[in-house]
Amino acid sequence: MVTLELDDETATLLNQLVEQEHISPAQLIKNVLLEHLEDSQDAKKADDAYQRYLEGGKISHNLNDVVKELGLDS
Question: For tag attachment on the chain, is the N or C end more exposed, with fewer CB atoms within 10 Å?
Answer without folding.
Answer: N
